[in-house]
Amino acid sequence: MDRLTYSTLRVREQGSVLFAQIHRPEAGNAINATLVHELDDVFTRAAAAEHTTVVVLEGLPEVFCFGADFGVISDAARTGRDTSFDPEPMFELFRHMAYADVLTVAHVRGKANAGGVGLVAACDVVIADESATFSLSELLFGLIPAVVLPYLIRRTGFQRAHYLAATTQTIDARQAHEWGLVDALGTPSDALLRRHLQRLGRLSKKGVARYKAYLRELSPLTEHTKDVALATNRQVFGDPDNVRAIRRYAEEGVFPWENASTPEPDPAAAPVARPAPPPRPQPSPSETTVEEQHLHQRPRPASPPPALSPRALGSPHFRVAHGVDYAYAAGAMYKGIASVDLVTALGNAGMLGFFGTGGLPLDEVEDAITRIKKGLDPGRAFGMNLLNNPDDPDLEARTVELYLRHGVRSVEASAYLRPTLPLVHYRLAGLGTDAEGRLRQDHHIIAKVSRTEVAEHFLRPAPEPLVRRLLDDGLITPEQAALGARLPLAQDLCVEADSAGHTDGGNAYVLMPAMRALRDRVTREEGYSEESGEAAVRVGAAGGIGTPDAALAALTLGAEFLVTGSINQCTVEAGTSDAVKDLLQGLGVHDTEYAPAGDMFEVGARVQAVRKSTFFPARAQKLYELYVRHDSLDDLDPRTRATLETKYFKRSLDEVWEETRAYLARRFPARLADVERSPKQKMAHVFRWYFVHSTRLALRGADQRVDYQIHCGPALGAFNTWVRGTDLEPWRGRRVDVIAERLLRETAALLTERLAAYGALAADSTPPTPPTAPGGPAPLATAE
Known about the structure:
Layout: E1 9-14, E2 17-22, H1 33-48, E3 54-58, E4 63-65, H2 70-78, H3 88-99, E5 103-108, E6 111-113, H4 115-121, E7 125-128, E8 133-135, H5 149-156, H6 158-167, E9 171-172, H7 173-179, E10 184-185, H8 189-200, H9 205-218, H10 223-238, H11 240-252, H12 290-297, H13 316-322, E11 328-330, H14 340-348, E12 352-355, H15 362-375, E13 383-387, H16 393-406, E14 410-414, H17 421-428, E15 431-433, E16 439-441, E17 444-449, H18 452-459, H19 464-472, H20 478-484, E18 492-496, E19 501-502, H21 508-526, E20 538-542, H22 548-556, E21 562-564, H23 566-569, H24 578-585, E22 592-596, E23 606-610, H25 616-629, H26 638-649, H27 653-667, H28 669-677, H29 679-700, H30 715-723, H31 736-765
Parallel strand pairs: 2-3, 3-5, 4-6, 5-7, 6-8, 7-10, 11-12, 11-21, 12-13, 13-14, 14-17, 17-18, 18-20, 20-21
Antiparallel strand pairs: 1-2, 8-9, 15-16, 19-23, 22-23
Helix pairs in contact: 1-3, 2-11, 5-6, 14-15, 15-16, 16-17, 18-21, 22-31, 25-29, 27-28, 27-29, 28-29
């Protein structure tokens, strides 16, 4: 099937299985007309697809689907518009799910209510977590689950469906399993789902189509059943009394039989399915005067906002583009410190991890890709680091060829000052259109930037001269060149501030607003279409993110995704030595320092590294100062030379040079002659040996701990303080996916707490403020 993008769904494909996740967290995953249309489109396309045999329908962990969106009906009634809800598309959706030429699997976690139960009942197979609950709440509002009942009766029998509808009582997953609404039950349900998909995935498309055709003949739903269901549904949703009850509940949270002051029912009584009232939509500026807008914005006393889901943080477009559940990534750490285990653990948790390719030969990189794919669950995502390498541009080109061959969909572009031919090749080779002419983007670049002039290169379309070279070489098609001309080179900018490794030491409070303003300006100048999200650029944040407070600060500054680094280096999965992890576990926020970078030694680039218990930052700085002051190794005074040989290198400078010379002769023979003719270059290469040596010592956990080079930012010190006294204090208890989940969960809880506090303040004393202008701050949490 073509890659699909919807506003109310998250869709991903894995072999013969299509996963469709309902994603309307702002409305409790409630059903509106758009969701019905988009779900029907998914099942129609899946049935027609040559190789798709199974569609898995999922919700959010906390709620599968809560039924009709009362907020839509309430808003229509409040503004005098038609409140009727055409039930026929939903009935036909259920019929597609029950009888189309594809097996449908419902994966239920959390609450399924009303129309959500209909979605479950229409599926061929229902797998539920023990957290799942099921209820039909329609009669509480004078409504009837008319469209749901034919499919529910087909599963549970008449009396049990009648009992659920008449009592409006909630049943748990075990009861639903006993009644036949649920086919398989277990926790965690993800593992149960995978086992079922392994069996279902063996079935052929032809066999599934013939089987579903037989079911249509065996247990058809008659047109009379449809006519009665639609007529009943239209009648109850058109009743003014019912509409008033819905509006009152949506706006005030009050049931039809309650007064606003009615006390809560006896908690010992049987639970009643109480759908959560969705947020009340605000009128658009075109519908109201400025004064009316101010009145609508005036804070009203209200109950605390519902707890935000970690999945709601950041940009939904980031999640769709990269095929993940969270707007969260773990950045690459060189030499495979961001390891295969690290990347697969995050991928299986619905997050994005980038494998650290820096300093590794291509055969090891290819092996890592193979092992990552093998370790990932079906449909899970991963990314690879792509490094600009001016010293060896051919390596960059061969790396891109490797990524294209293995279908790598996401890369983290690092150390780029301007676009290169391989980078543009990767981006444009992933562009195309589907059968209906819609844009398809299969390759995504997250560009790590710390300077606006560099960021602008990524915000613009690929440079025309590079595109022409790729066309001339037959590496891209004319269609891909034309599509690339209307898109930015990268749609994700990761703004690095005070991060580990290479960094300009920028301040996030300054960089994030500047990058967002640049993004908005370039978007206007290039005329990118933002309505569809095709060309929208997302700005994320990296550096200093090690606690919920820091993550929330980044989101408040407008970050649409979060990238962590240092905190992942001190985990079980990180590909470095136990000795390094022991040291990192005890860091504080002041235990890192900026030092010269070995790979860009001559230009004075700097990295942030650990200074506690090591001499590396001081010794690296000393080597750079000697390089600046002297023209050759022969200019060094005897005392300085002796210090370098006995304390820094622990071997003579001549021995270091011979080792370096052998390396250059093997890797860069054409450059060796130039280095030998230049005493200054020779000195630089000898000094750079220390940086390679200090990295090796750390990765091996050798005895020379004082020379360990460990790239790390202060975020890890903050993280260590945050987890002190918990199960995450010892690094052997730190797993990268657990850290990420806890960080996001506590960030969401903190955001909920802050919103409640500010809401209380606003309700007490804050005067109304004008509406936010277009182009204002990005939302902290988003949903479609």
